[in-house]
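Incident log, support desk, overnight shift.

02:14 A customer reports that sequence design results differ from what the structure should imply. Their input is reproduced verbatim below. On-call engineer (initials T.W.) acknowledged and began investigating.
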């Protein structure tokens, strides 16, 4: 009988992609994916270091598993991802229930580590070198069969924003070869993908040189457009500094690139951007915004904001507020600054809690109201939806419009994988609700 493996994934789409690739890898040594946590032989926790108290969350989760398996044989407990990278040996010392710790650049060693553990019960902590795991994973078919699939094209970051752990946990920027990316895209399309989201910590920093020619993300987007079965292309997460004209030009000619740009700015104050070591100004950001809006006025933006970064005055905060009022992001992430061990910003003096909460409430009031208003704008209109799956209660379908809004509506399983028109009847902050529209005369938003 096949052994079962359960992976719990925290964090971003890149971790989700990594978890899927781990499933593909361990299949080769007889493990099968299970959704039944209580009866698994191996439990993998794919961790994220971006959020506050990431380390504590990992130990809390291990404690939960311990309780579940109190009266049974314990599963092999593996911690992977960014917290694993940052904590390394410390984890094995602090929590003996953990058997294997693997950083995000060492996933290719998971089969070896598992076999070693099964044979010798040998606790393992992998070396954290920068050997590319991609060479290993390029040889294993990506079995993901989702309608909307992720494809990692780039990893790591050389920008060293002072608040961020990514350069320490994922290492320096690495871009995968074009051929390998396109080959993986073909596999995903063969397995049913109609939409591909290109992933990277700094996705638009993608740069691969072959025969003295540099390939950028714009080249990949244009290559992907040629696959007729593929209907939509997205990418995340991008940095303003790498929003070069070749990428902006893709919005002129590429009909499959969706008119929705997630472009983190973090602050609307140049003083704070400098303190953060962001390497771009507010004016740079606005210039990108204006260029894109000129190409297509319907393009929408979302962003990330860090509120109360050390040194942020009321004036700096008001600059951020003014930027939010100007751009009207339709969906954004906003958090109070919290220090990450090992980063430069971790040594700085924090702004008091009361001021920080007040500022966060104020900014979210604006961000959420634009989000709600934008969703309301779709009511009574017809939107094109790529149908991804059935939702939990099995009676409704789930899909996304061009701007990445969730759309929920009654429909048939046979619509999964199609782009159909849905007339929006109501909305809330996070989703649109409607019914399938047949009237071709409806105005599509
Ligand atoms: S560019 Fe992004 S990933 Fe890189 S250090 Fe800054 S926030 Fe982190």
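02:41 Re-run completed on a clean worker. Output:
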């Amino acid at each position: 009988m096949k052994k079962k493996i359960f992976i719990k994934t925290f964090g971003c789409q890149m971790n989700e992609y990594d978890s899927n690739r781990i499933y593909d890898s361990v299949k080769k040594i007889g493990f099968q994916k299970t959704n039944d946590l209580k009866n698994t032989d191996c439990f993998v926790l794919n961790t994220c270091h971006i959020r506050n108290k990431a380390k504590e969350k990992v130990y809390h989760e291990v404690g939960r598993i311990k309780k579940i398996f109190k009266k049974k044989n314990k599963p092999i407990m593996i911690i992977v991802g960014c917290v694993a990278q940052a904590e390394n040996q410390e984890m094995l010392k602090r929590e003996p229930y953990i058997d294997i710790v693997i950083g995000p650049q060492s996933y290719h060693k998971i089969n070896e580590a598992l076999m070693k553990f099964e044979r010798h019960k040998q606790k393992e902590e992998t070396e954290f070198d920068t050997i590319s795991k991609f060479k290993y994973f390029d040889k294993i078919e990506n079995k993901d069969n989702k309608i909307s699939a992720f494809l990692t094209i780039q990893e790591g970051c050389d920008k060293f924003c002072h608040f961020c752990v990514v350069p320490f946990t994922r290492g320096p920027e690495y871009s995968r070869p074009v051929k390998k990316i396109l080959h993986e895209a073909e596999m995903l399309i063969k397995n049913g993908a109609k939409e591909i989201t290109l992933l990277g910590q700094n996705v638009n920093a993608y740069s691969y040189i072959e025969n003295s020619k540099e390939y950028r993300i714009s080249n990949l987007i244009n290559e992907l457009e040629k696959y007729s079965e593929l209907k939509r292309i997205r990418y995340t997460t991008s940095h303003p500094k790498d929003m070069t004209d070749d990428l902006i030009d893709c919005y002129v000619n590429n009909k499959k690139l969706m008119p929705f740009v997630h472009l983190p700015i973090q602050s609307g104050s140049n003083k704070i951007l400098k303190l953060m070591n962001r390497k771009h100004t507010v004016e740079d950001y606005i210039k990108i915004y204006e260029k894109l809006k000129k190409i297509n006025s319907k393009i929408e933006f979302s962003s990330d904001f860090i509120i109360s970064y050390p040194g942020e005055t009321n004036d700096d905060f008001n600059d951020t507020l003014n930027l939010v009022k100007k751009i009207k992001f339709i969906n954004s992430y906003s958090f109070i600054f919290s220090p990450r061990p090992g980063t430069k910003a971790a040594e700085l003096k924090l702004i008091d809690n009361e001021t920080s909460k007040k500022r966060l409430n104020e900014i979210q009031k604006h961000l959420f109201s634009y989000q709600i208003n934008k969703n309301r704008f779709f009511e009574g209109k017809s939107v094109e939806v790529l149908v991804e799956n059935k939702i939990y209660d099995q009676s409704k379908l789930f899909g996304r419009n061009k701007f990445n809004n969730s759309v929920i509506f009654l429909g048939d399983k046979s619509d999964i994988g199609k782009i159909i028109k849905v007339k929006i009847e109501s909305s809330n902050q996070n989703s649109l609700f409607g019914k399938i529209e047949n009237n071709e005369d409806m105005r599509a938003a």
